[in-house]
């Protein structure tokens, strides 16, 4: 089995399916198009011989690779997510393979002036001699996390073809809506049946993550008051201007572009509206949950101050839990990371 070619062919097929999630959606999964890939993966798992393949109403795909070793062994799960980021288009993705990169510029799109090199992407320096896959410059690539799906599927096919390789029972799970912080909202951990599971969703080869941000979504809504500008003094509340004032009031040293490592931040991702109504969306990230809540209280205090400044407007701020730092669980089971690092 040509693993490299099988891996690429799978990834190319998955990448061409638009699975962009939608943070504003009220459904789960947030977009129906994620089911297109989910159905494909379920059918493919059955075709390669996986057992207990299931696609549920929420879009979760699960399957099992039976044990080949005798005796009781831990049941290990492998996870990856199907959706791609709402930040860039996932429609019409055209993966490009740049064979045996020798260094220098990788021209992704001359038309758009999109060029990749070790200067604007330092991680690329360690990939000399490797094949590099990029998008065409018009869309995202979707390697986050269709590369993870392709890796798991290719490994599953290989193990199913080689029963002589001893292993315990393996579980596979593909999830929707990770990019909007809702990936495990309806995931049935007990039914999945793994003693522990590892997510294939990293960046450079060999990297292992044992900690992540605590994450919440942020939503600020402003209802203004519109009157004729000729008679607006002490009568108008311009929601668009108030939104800008709130965003500008957030400390500059607590933004993603001014922080690093374990430092927390709030990122304002979208501002939409006009005089009568405006909405600000964002994300809050902090490794320490207490610091996350303190940061949110700081934003609430800024909002409260703006209510006093703009008494004619109605200003509300809300936070939605997305996910929590996995280290809080991992510290209770040090063997999970210990065995992974040993492997």
Primary descriptors:
single chain; 343 residues; alpha+beta; Aminopeptidase; Alpha-Beta Plaits; 3 domains
The CATH C-level class name of the largest domain: Alpha Beta
The overall strand count is 13
| Beta-strand content | 15-25%
The N- and C-terminal alpha carbons lie at a distance of 23 Å
Helix content: 25-40%
CATH topology of the largest domain: Aminopeptidase
Number of helical stretches of at least 4 residues: 8
Largest sheet: 5 strands, mixed
Overall structural class, as computed from helix and strand content, comes to alpha+beta
Uncertain segments are none
What's the gyration radius in Å?
A: 23 Å
The overall pLDDT average reads 95
Could you explain how this protein is built, in words?
By secondary structure, the protein is an alpha+beta fold. It folds into 3 domains: about 5-90 and about 140-210 and about 325-340, Zn peptidases (Aminopeptidase), CATH 3.40.630.10; about 95-135, no CATH class; about 215-325, Alpha-Beta Plaits (2-Layer Sandwich). The chain has helices at about 5-15, 35-50, 145-160, 190, 240-250, 290-310, 325-330, 335-340, and strands at about 50-55, 60-65, 75-80, 95-100, 105-110, 115, 130-135, 170-175, 195-200, 215-225, 265-275, 275-285, 315-325. The chain has a 5-stranded mixed sheet with strand order 1-2-8-3-9, with helices on one face. Strands 11-12-10-13 form a 4-stranded antiparallel sheet, with helices on one face. A two-stranded antiparallel ribbon has the order 4-7. The mean pLDDT is about 95.
């Amino acid at each position: 089995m040509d693993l490299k070619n099988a891996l690429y062919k799978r990834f190319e097929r998955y990448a061409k399916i638009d699975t962009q999630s939608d943070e504003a959606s009220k459904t789960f999964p947030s977009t129906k198009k994620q089911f297109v890939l989910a159905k494909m993966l379920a059918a493919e798992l059955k075709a390669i011989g996986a057992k207990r393949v299931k696609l549920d109403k929420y879009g979760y795909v699960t399957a099992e690779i039976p044990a080949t070793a005798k005796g009781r062994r831990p049941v290990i799960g492998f996870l990856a997510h199907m959706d791609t980021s709402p930040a860039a288009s996932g429609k019409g993705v055209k993966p490009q393979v740049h064979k045996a990169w020798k260094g220098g510029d990788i021209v992704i799109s001359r038309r758009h002036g999109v060029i990749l090199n070790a200067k604007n992407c330092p991680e690329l320096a360690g990939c000399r001699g490797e094949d590099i896959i990029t998008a065409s410059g018009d869309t995202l690539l979707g390697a986050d996390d269709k590369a993870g799906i392709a890796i798991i599927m290719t490994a599953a096919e290989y193990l199913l073809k080689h029963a002589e390789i001893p292993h315990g029972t393996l579980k596979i799970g593909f999830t929707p809506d990770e990019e909007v912080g809702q990936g495990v909202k309806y995931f049935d951990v007990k039914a999945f049946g793994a003693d522990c599971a590892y997510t294939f969703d990293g960046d450079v080869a060999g990297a292992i993550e044992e900690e992540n941000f605590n994450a919440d979504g942020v939503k600020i809504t402003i209802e203004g008051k519109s009157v004729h500008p000729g008679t607006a003094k002490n009568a108008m509340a311009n929601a668009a201007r108030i939104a800008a004032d709130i965003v500008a009031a957030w400390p500059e040293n607590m933004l993603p572009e001014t922080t690093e490592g374990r430092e927390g931040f709030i990122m304002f991702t979208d501002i939409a509206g006009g005089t009568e109504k405006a909405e600000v969306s964002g994300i809050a990230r902090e490794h320490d949950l207490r610091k996350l809540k303190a940061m949110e209280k700081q934003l609430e205090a800024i909002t409260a101050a703006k209510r006093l400044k703009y008494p004619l407007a109605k200003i509300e701020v809300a936070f939605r839990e997305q996910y929590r730092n996995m280290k809080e669980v991992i510290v209770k089971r040090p063997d999970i990371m210990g065995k992974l690092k040993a492997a």
